[in-house]
Design brief:
10 helices; mainly alpha
Length: about 260
């Protein structure tokens, strides 16, 4: 599965820009005004000395900059995963086709490989870069050159292994984002604890509002970051499962549709 690196880089750049705009607009229009109204209501009730229950408001939990950054990274990673999953699913459609048009009892001799290879070369240019056509073509070319069935099996296995390594390497950006999200949450934790320590003298005097607000920043940022990280890890593992199944099924397809039909005089 070959992607145009320039196209993929451009997509990732646009996806990041869109994620930043969407999340920031939601924060400006919904999250920050809503969170501020909740905090103002709490402060008014506390100033009047009224008894009130400190409910955990979702808007207050996600109101800080660290949580905003985590949501941006979540949307960005989701877009990249969807982009890669689309290519995997498009490749899987080839597994339902009989690209070689082999029937039960068909024998493929070394001199027949060119005719079968031409069927694969007749595919559209984009589809010829898919894993299955490349594996079949490599196997046919190896069989035509060596007339050795073990060499053909090795060619198929080698093509699939290289593709598996290539697909795994393409997950590096998603792995970085998965690492970055909890790191941003920990930055919020350090910032919140630092602010709380800076207001410790007020707590000694009996004013704990500032300390509790700062500790809220610390714990809320870590909480949101870990939840988002778990979600992105789930999506990434689903993508990795799709990719592993594609490689395994392509190798099984080659065994079923090609290798068992090969014959040497």
């Amino acid at each position: 599965m070959k992607h145009n690196p320039t196209t993929e880089f451009f997509f990732q750049l646009v996806a990041l820009l869109v994620a930043v705009i969407v999340v920031h607009v939601l924060y400006v229009t919904l999250v920050w005004p809503g969170a501020q109204s909740v905090l103002d209501a709490r402060a008014a009730a506390q100033a009047l000395g009224d008894a009130f229950e400190m409910d955990r408001s979702f808007l207050v939990v996600i109101k800080d900059y660290e949580q905003e950054a985590c949501f941006v990274l979540m949307l960005w990673a989701s877009a990249i995963i969807a982009w890669k999953a689309r290519f995997v699913l498009s490749e899987r459609r080839h597994l339902a086709q009989d690209l070689l048009a082999t029937e039960e009892g068909t024998r493929i001799l070394p001199e027949d490989t060119r005719a079968y290879a031409r069927r694969l070369q007749a595919l559209p240019a984009a589809e010829r870069e898919y894993l299955l056509p490349r594996a079949l073509l490599a196997a046919l070319q190896r069989f035509g050159a060596t007339a050795s069935i073990p060499d053909v099996a090795h060619a198929v296995r080698e093509t699939c292994e290289v593709e598996a390594e290539h697909l795994d390497a393409e997950l590096s950006m998603i792995r970085y984002i998965v690492w970055a999200i909890p790191s941003i949450g920990f930055i919020g934790t350090v910032r919140g604890i630092g602010q709380a320590l800076g207001q410790a003298h007020r707590a000694v005097e009996g004013d704990i509002v500032g300390v509790t607000a700062s500790l809220g920043v610390a714990f809320n940022s870590t909480f949101i970051a870990l939840v988002i990280s778990l979600f992105i890890m789930f999506l990434m593992h689903q993508l990795q499962l799709l990719q592993d199944r594609l490689v395994f099924d392509a190798q099984s397809y080659c065994d079923l549709k090609l290798l068992r039909h090969l014959a040497v005089r």
